[in-house]
Structures are given as structure tokens and as C-alpha cells.
Amino acid sequence: MALIEVKNLSVTIKQKKILEDINFAVEDGEVTVLVGPSGSGKTTLLRTLNLLQQPAAGTIQIGQSTVDGRKLNKKSTRALRAESTMVFQQFNLFKNMTVIENVMAPLLLNKLAKWDEAHAVAEERLREVGLLEFADKYPSSLSGGQQQRVSIARAIAVKPAVVLLDEPTSALDPELVGSVLKTILELAKQHITMVIVTHEMDFARQIGNQIIFLEKGQIVHKGTPDEILSDQGPERVHNFLNSVSAAY
User: Fold this and answer.
1) d(CA 105, CA 158)
2) What digits encode the pLDDT tens for the residues 88-145?
3) Average pLDDT over residues 199-219
4) Separation of alpha carbons 225 and 201, rounded Å
5) Rounded to an integer, what distance in angstroms lies between the CA atom of residue 149 and that of residue 179?
6) 102 inside domain
7) What's the pLDDT at 185?
8) Are 215 and 37 in contact (CB under 8 A)?
């Protein structure tokens, strides 16, 4: 059984259909990358996987938890959210906490570990993202790229089944992008299951096991990077890649 399975998912916001009949699966330890033009529904789909956006219909299964968009309740919502963590475009770090306290926070707030254990886990996660030396600093003293890496460390501290990343480099200056992408690539090498929204097409080719191309709220193409993002890929995707290259 796939780690993530989405069936017949639809999302309506203010009576406008944003996603329609979305179906896909993600295997354990693999990376799925969501690409497509602005307004295609990529971020909405990612947010719906964590139920930050409520579906109108369809089912979402992550790990051992499944929800039906028409029959949501607090218990099923809480269970599904416990299976994943999210990394946003903005870093969302607690400004009044040190770097290590930020990484410890979800472990302590969710009562997943006592202080000593949470501190040890946070140190290890910061070591993995190359920021242990900044453990006692405050977020304001870090660059944008460093802050995003802290948010990634915080996301993986709770050992989620899935990490969801919404354009994790879009708020960064170009020279800071590389360090964040390298950190995410290292997570992929650890076989951490991820679903990523990105406009970094070279990165998508490098990290993705599955590429999903969305347009107008629907999955138009789905396959491996070679099938979707190569010169021999679908014409619509090829035109999109050319437009992205021109923009960047």
C-alpha cells in the first residue's frame, strides 16, 4: 500500500472549484514534485493533504490515517495531520525562541518527548542541516536560507511520515537558494517521503521520483522526471518549461 493515496479529491473555495478529481499515490521514501503554472492549484493541493484546506469531496490516506472530505471530524483531522509536517514559503519561526528552542518546540508542545530528549533530537536535526553552531542564536540573526533550514530541521524533528514543502525557496534571495535545496536533497537520500511544490525545474528533475503537472485544478500529466520534464515530454509541459526558463 502506498504511503499517500489521494482519490477523487475536489476542493471548492467561495463556490469556485479549485481542484477537481485529483488522483495520485506516493510510495514510502519517495519524492513527488508538484509543478505547473501559477493558479493551477499546487499549493491548495499541498495544504489539503494537511487539511489546512478542507476538501469538498474525495479521500486522503496518509500512513494509517484516512479522511473522507464529506465526513471530516476533529478526531480524523487530528490523526491525519499527525502523519505529516509542513515547511512554508515563509519560515514561521518563533522570534522569541532560540534556534534550538524552535526545533524543540513541536516535540514539547505535542508532548512527544521530555526536555532532555527533545534537546538531544534538536541538536541532531540541526547537525543534519549544518546549523548546530547557531543553536543558541535567535532567528533574526540568521540569513533567510539559514532560517528556512531551521524550519526544515523543526519539521523533521517529530519524525513525520511525510514532509510537505510549499515552494521552500521562493522567499529567498538567489544566492541563498542552493543551501536550502542541498538540505532537501540530503533528506531525500535518507528516504524521507516528501511532496514538494517548486518552480526550480532542475531541482525537480534531480529530486523527484514522480512529477505531477497541474493546470486549472486538474492533474494533466503524471510520471517520472524523464517522462514529464525531458525534451521528449508532453508538449504542454515543454512549453511551460520554456516559459519558466525565460522568467528565471
Assistant:
1) 10
2) 988 899 999 999 999 999 999 989 999 999 999 999 999 999 999 999 999 999 999 9
3) 95
4) 10
5) 8
6) yes
7) 94
8) yes
- Which range is least confidently modeled, 131-135, 194-198, 231-235? 231-235
- Cell digits of residue 105: 518546540
Contact 173, 155 (CB under 8 A): no
**Which pLDDT belongs to residue 244?**
77
* Total number of domains in the chain: 1
Indicate whether 137 belongs to any domain: yes
Say how far apart CA 1 and CA 68 lie, in whole Å: 18
* Residue span of the structural domain in which 111 resides: 90-159
Residue 245 pLDDT exceeds 80: no
Q: Which residues of 27-60 are buried (b: 16+ CB within 10 A; e: fewer)?
A: eeebbbbbbbeeebbbbbbbbbbbbebebbbbbb
Can you say whether residue 51 is alpha, beta or left, with left for phi > 0 and alpha for psi between -120 and 50 degrees? left
* Pairwise CA distance, residues 42 & 214, whole Å: 7
Q: Please report where in the chains the cell 553552531 appears, as a residue.
A: 133
Q: In what order do the strands lie in the sheet with 210-215?
A: 84-87, 162-166, 194-197, 31-35, 210-215, 218-223
**Spatial distance between the Cα atoms of 214 and 236, rounded to a whole number of angstroms:** 11
Average pLDDT over residues 199-228: 96
Q: What is the DSSP-derived secondary structure letter of residue 19?
A: E
Name the burial class of residue 105, with classes exposed (0-12), middle (13-18) and buried (19+) by CB atoms within 10 angstroms of its CB: middle
pLDDT tens for residues 171-181? 888 888 999 99
Q: What cell does 35 get?
A: 509543478
> Does residue 181 belong to any structural domain of this protein?
no
Q: What is the pLDDT of residue 49?
A: 97
57-62 sheet: strands from edge to edge: 16-26, 4-13, 57-62, 65-68
Q: Do the domain assignments include residue 172? A: no
> For position 120, what pLDDT does the model report?
98
